[in-house]
Structures are given as structure tokens and as C-alpha cells.
Amino acid sequence: MKAVLFEHFREAPSIRNVPDPKPSTDGVVVKVEATGLCRSDWHGWMGHDADIVLPHVPGHELAGTVQAVGRQVTQWRVGDRVTVPFVGGCGHCHECNSGNHQVCEQQFQPGFTAWGSFAEYVAIDYADTNLVRLPEELDFVTAASLGCRFVTSFRAIVDQAKVLPGEWVAVHGCGGVGLSAIMIATAMGANVVAIDLTEEKLAFARELGAVATVNGAEQDVVAAVKEITKGGAHVSVDALGHPSTCFNSIANLRRRGRHVQVGLMLGDHATPQVPMDKVIAHELQIVGSHGMQAFRYKAMMDMLETGKLKPQKLVGKRISLAEAPVALMQMDRFDGTGISVVDRF
């Protein structure tokens, strides 16, 4: 099969012919019909993820059809249309038994712990625990755009932050994660303030439901959010993963506000400054959000079916697999709006 492969961190990946994968006893092989490009893939290529063993095929936001099934798999058949969370649970550790597959002690992550979906085929372990069936009316590109960004944002807004109608939600960073969070928080009835450094992305955020925007290149973010919300956000999300957005997200909260860290904090950004005096004095809550369990997809899919969520609006560029190596290396530039998806192999 054709795949994007890199043999050294920070060196240009290339298109290679590599052996087709085979399913593990509890896994499947999926023919990839579409796969999203995510900044997490860029972090992996940079060498920020200790799980990656070289040589490596990246990619974790995928949708496709089951091509082969392991002998212990009971719920899936060849031809089934599927997607998968970017964090897969083993199904039998303490965290999985408590329903928290997203922090599984032996988690499977395509594109990180195993070869990923920047390829014609990808092997997925623990299939009965992790695969998600796609409705026939949901096209593969839209399904791939759900990827890690939309589902991670869904869990961050709905399950972790527990956003309520009428609350003020500040979203720092209007990339794929941030735009997803804006759409979901708006659907939950919240008032969203979008923060970014470019007017193009802020304009797109308004199209998706943000009622106010703050340009961090021109304004004091914390002061602006507190003024707009008349005291601070009830919920604030760092959707980018940078010391400044993390600090601002916590600092712009009102008393007893909730900060959710979704953007990855890796490498030099792993230990950001935190206004801990405010965390204590104002009883702020700080929580992380790491993917979403497969069984929680139904609530999100129901909102897609009724039209309350329209992730297809987030799809930006559609590119070929041959274009993926350059696109991957340029993920740190934050160019354009929306999510890029590979749909031609």
C-alpha cells in the first residue's frame, strides 16, 4: 500500500510503498476513505510523543470501511462503514472498566502507538471496544473531520466543562479544535467569545456562532473577555496549547469558573505558568480533556442528525495523499481556516 512515512523526526516524510497491515486477533483493518490533518500529527513528527517508534506512518483522524476482521472480533464485518476515537481503550483495565477509555492504561492510538491513517489501509486494535459505526448519510470526509478535534471538543464542552445554556464560554484559538468548540458550545445554548490573532479566523468563528471576538494581537485578552462577559467567563477553553493561551484562559475566568485544557502542551510548553493565586482565591476548576470514548459518540451523532451540529462547515481543504507530507510539515503555520482532509489516495 501507499503511505506517508518518516524515518527521522523533523525530516521530510515521503510517499512509500509499505506492506499492507493485517488485523490483530481483536482488531480490524480499515480501508481509509478520508483522514484529517491535525496539529497532533505535527507534534508526533517533531518528536514530541514518546510513544512513536521510527520509522512511522502518522494520521489518526480517519473514516473508512472494514476490509479484514480478526478472529476474536464479534461486532464488525467486512464492508462496515466506521470511524474510531484517536484514543482507543483496551476494554479491560481499571479505567476502561469505569467507562474512561480515553485515559486507558494500555491505550491504542493510531498514528502514535501504531502506524496511522496517512495510508491506504490502517490496522485498528480492540475493535469491539472502539469502532464507531457511521450512518449511511454521513460522508467519509465529514466523518474524518470529526476526528480527534471535534469529538475532543464535544467531550470538553459537554462532559468536562458541563456547559449550561446562557453561560459565557471563552475559546482561545480558532483552529480545528477551537472552531469545533465554538459550534458545540453554541449548540448547547452558551454565549461564546472567540479569541485568535487573525481577523480571518475570527470572522469564521462568528459564522459558526461566536457572539463576540477578541483579537489577541491588538487587545488585552483577559481584560477584553472580562469586559464582554461582565466579570469573566464561566467556562474557558485553551484550544491551542500554548503558555500564553493557557494563562489567559485561566486568568479570564470569573469566580468559580472552569478552565478546560484541550490544546496539547508538549516540548517546551509542557510546564506553563499558571495564576495559582487566582485558582485558590476564586475556587477555579482546571480540568484536562483527552479524546472521547466510542460509546459517547451516539449523543454527538444524534445532534448531527438533527442538524444542531454541522461539522461539514469546518472542512477546509481537500487534498491528496501525495500532498500530505508538505501539509504535515506546515501545520505549525496555522494557515487558512477549518480542517484539511485527505480524500484521494
From TrEMBL:
The answer on whether this UniProt entry bears the keyword Transmembrane helix reads: no
Please list the residue ranges annotated as the Enoyl reductase (ER) domain.
8-342
| Required co-factors | Zn(2+)
Which PROSITE patterns would you find in this protein's record? ADH_ZINC
Q: Name one GO molecular function term.
A: zinc ion binding
- InterPro entries cross-referenced by the UniProt entry: ADH-like_C, ADH-like_N, ADH_Zn_CS, ER, GroES-like_sf, NAD(P)-bd_dom_sf, Zn_alcohol_dh
Decide whether keyword Oxidoreductase is in the record.
yes
Q: Which UniProt keywords apply?
A: Metal-binding, Oxidoreductase, Zinc
Query: Per its UniProt record, what PANTHER family does this chain match?
Result: ALCOHOL DEHYDROGENASE-RELATED (PTHR43401:SF5), L-THREONINE 3-DEHYDROGENASE (PTHR43401)
Q: Which family does it belong to?
A: Belongs to the zinc-containing alcohol dehydrogenase family.
The protein's name is Zinc-dependent alcohol dehydrogenase family protein
Native organism is: Mesorhizobium zhangyense
